[in-house]
Every structure is written in C-alpha cells, then in structure tokens.
C-alpha cells in the first residue's frame, strides 16, 4: 500500500513523532510506501508531495514542529480542491490512502472527504485537548508544561513588584491548558471558556490575594468571555475555516482589574510559544503509538476512523464522533480548581 501523510492546522509538539511511528510501523510490518504532502491540505490539493523513507524519520520523535509543514488550507476551495479533483490526483500517483494528522478543522474536512469516498484515517492533534473522542491528544501535555513554566517565571517578577499578572494561554472553546497549568502553577484564578465570570468576581479573588500579602496571578484561556460578552474577544479577523482568530482577552482584563482594585496589573500572552520546541516524553510516546495504530487502521480498511486514546489503550472511533462534540472541562473539574482561587 502507498499511503500519504499530512499535517494540517496549527502545529504542535509531537507531529514528527506521529510521522516516525507511522513510517516505522508501515515499513517494518507491512512494507508500506509513504509520501508526505507538503503544507497540509494545500499539498493534497496541489499534488505537492515527497517520498518518506525509514531513513528520513531517523531520530525524528524528539524534534518539534513538522517536517512536512502545515497550513490552514481548506481542501474544498480553489481550482483543484474538492473530492473529485483530490481523488484524481491520488489515483494518478498511486496513493491509496491518506493519514490526516490534525485538529477539529482538519478532521472535519477529512470527514467530508471520507463521506465523498476518499480513504482517510485521522490522527487527533490539538494542544487544546478539545476533541471529545480521545481522552488526551498529543501536544497538550507539552503545552501545559510550557505554560506552567511561564507561570513560575511570572510569579517571581509579580512578587518583586507586587503586581497582578494576567497570563493568556491558548484554548479556543475549552480551558484544559488553563486549568492544568493554572492548578500546577498555583494560579489565584483560572478563567476558561466553559465558565463565564463577572469582572467583580475576578477582582474579588485579586483583592483576596493582596490582603494575604501576595501578588495575584490569573490564568485566562483565549476563548474566555466575561459574563457581559456575547462572543470571545477577537480583533484579528478570520482564519481559512472562517473562525475568528482569538487573542487579546488578557490585555482587555488587566486594565479593568487595575481600575477596580488599584493594583498595578500587567498582561502576558503566551501565544505560539506553547506550540514550539521539543515534545515532552509523554507526548513523544503517545504520538508514536497513534502513528503506529493509524497504519494498522489503514490496513484494516477502517476508513473514516480516527485513532484515539482511551485510558492507556489506543482504539479507533469514527471521525464523525470526534468532531461531533467538544471535550469541555466538566463542572466538577472546575469546582475542584475553584477551591484554590483567591
């Protein structure tokens, strides 16, 4: 079998480990031939790919980013887009299946293409950990480690100047990065999309911390909304899938906190630092296992399925199940963290 691999959407630590795991499993167990599409769906639409051999993936699991490149291209748009054109390109090049490594947008596109008859296996990739059909996705644990280190560093400068620090982390629809890093770093409030909150309650936590002689530190997910806001804060336009590019809520909150409490407040947006660098050991192992099982799913003919982590086992579910709902932070998990606020 000749399989094409792509990485699409936002990059994250562990993508290269998936590629390595898939190639090694395919070559060793099935004598598979692999090609890699450059720049995600863009490479599929344009027929831009390169051969991937066992030699090409040597030592790749520890490398961040993706050797194939990524983009937020919509495979249904453009002169060469759409399932008919893509299938024609695959047939002309003898490519029998695609392993699509990506998040919500990538897998939604993969589902539509599968419904049109293409042979695709999905691998979940999202540092947000927002796909409901998997317990955890690779890249999340590394992002949490990076955010936790940022909290530790911000705490020292906050204490030095007796300031309030507001750290913005990623999390479009769900607050897992904020929740885990905030708990690990001892944040005094954690603000997530699932739990709108009023500015007065936030300031109550800030005042409580100051009264104890501490410098307040707040972690906020980019998708958090104040209870007076109808939509998450965005001023950066739309991406290729017509979703708002979020960011800037920390910059909005810091002056509001300072105005109401009189405490000098500063904001920091962690941004793409969360996506960069080498993956953690946990993410290397998880990504490698997902890549290996994706190849098995292809040989099982489980088209339209996605490999997933359930407990400590790798299983397969339909892509439709993966993109049908979000893995939101449940109320009881937020209530646990809330005990630690203030």
TrEMBL record:
The enzyme's E.C. designation: 2.7.1.11
Binding site for Mg(2+): 104
Gene Ontology biological process terms from the UniProt entry: canonical glycolysis; fructose 1,6-bisphosphate metabolic process; fructose 6-phosphate metabolic process
Top-tier EC class: transferase
Active site location: 128
GO MF annotation terms: 6-phosphofructokinase activity; AMP binding; ATP binding; diphosphate-fructose-6-phosphate 1-phosphotransferase activity; fructose-6-phosphate binding; identical protein binding; metal ion binding; monosaccharide binding
Gene3D superfamilies, sorted: 3.40.50.450, Phosphofructokinase domain (3.40.50.460)
Keyword terms, alphabetized: ATP-binding, Cytoplasm, Glycolysis, Kinase, Magnesium, Metal-binding, Nucleotide-binding, Transferase
Known pathway: Carbohydrate degradation; glycolysis; D-glyceraldehyde 3-phosphate and glycerone phosphate from D-glucose: step 3/4
Principal subcellular localization: cytoplasm
Residues in Phosphofructokinase domain copies: 2-297
An example Gene Ontology CC term for this record: 6-phosphofructokinase complex
Pfam families listed in its UniProt record: PFK
Site, Important for substrate specificity: residue positions: 105
The reaction(s) this protein catalyses: beta-D-fructose 6-phosphate + ATP = beta-D-fructose 1,6-bisphosphate + ADP + H(+)
Family classification: Belongs to the phosphofructokinase type A (PFKA) family. Mixed-substrate PFK group III subfamily.
Task performed by this protein: Catalyzes the phosphorylation of D-fructose 6-phosphate to fructose 1,6-bisphosphate by ATP, the first committing step of glycolysis.
Protein name from the UniProt record: ATP-dependent 6-phosphofructokinase
Organism, scientific name: Agromyces bauzanensis
The encoding gene: pfkA
């Amino acid at each position: 079998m000749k399989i094409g691999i792509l990485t699409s959407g936002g990059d994250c630590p562990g993508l290269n480990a998936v590629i390595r795991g898939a190639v090694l499993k395919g070559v060793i167990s099935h004598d598979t031939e692999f090609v890699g599409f450059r720049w995600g769906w863009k490479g599929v639409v344009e027929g831009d790919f390169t051969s991937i051999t066992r030699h090409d993936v040597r030592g790749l699991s520890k490398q961040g980013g993706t050797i194939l490149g990524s983009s937020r291209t919509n495979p249904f748009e453009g002169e060469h887009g759409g399932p008919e054109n893509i299938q024609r390109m695959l047939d002309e090049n003898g490519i029998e299946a695609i392993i699509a490594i990506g998040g919500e947008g990538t897998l939604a596109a993969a589902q539509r293409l599968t419904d049109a008859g293409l042979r695709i296996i999905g691998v979940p990739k999202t540092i947000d950990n927002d796909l409901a059909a998997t317990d955890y996705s690779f890249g999340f644990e590394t992002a949490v480690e990076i955010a936790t280190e940022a909290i530790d560093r911000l705490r020292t400068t906050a204490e030095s100047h007796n300031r309030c620090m507001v750290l913005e982390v990623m999390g479009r629809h769900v607050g897992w990065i904020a929740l885990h890093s905030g708990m690990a770093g001892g944040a005094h409030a954690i603000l997530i999309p699932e739990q709108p909150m009023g500015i007065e309650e936030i300031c109550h936590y800030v005042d409580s911390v100051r009264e104890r002689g501490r410098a307040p530190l707040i972690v906020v997910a980019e998708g958090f909304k104040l209870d007076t806001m109808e939509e998450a804060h965005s001023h950066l336009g739309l991406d290729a899938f017509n979703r708002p590019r979020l960011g800037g809520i920390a910059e909005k909150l810091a002056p509001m906190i300072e105005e109401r409490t009189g405490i000098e407040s500063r904001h920091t947006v962690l941004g793409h630092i969360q996506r960069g660098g080498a993956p953690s050991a946990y993410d290397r192992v998880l990504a490698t296992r997902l890549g290996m099982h994706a190849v098995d799913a292809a040989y099982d003919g489980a088209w339209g399925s996605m490999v997933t982590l359930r407990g400590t086992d790798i299983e397969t579910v339909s892509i439709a199940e993966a993109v049908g709902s979000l893995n939101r932070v449940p109320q009881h998990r937020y209530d646990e963290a809330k005990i630690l606020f203030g």
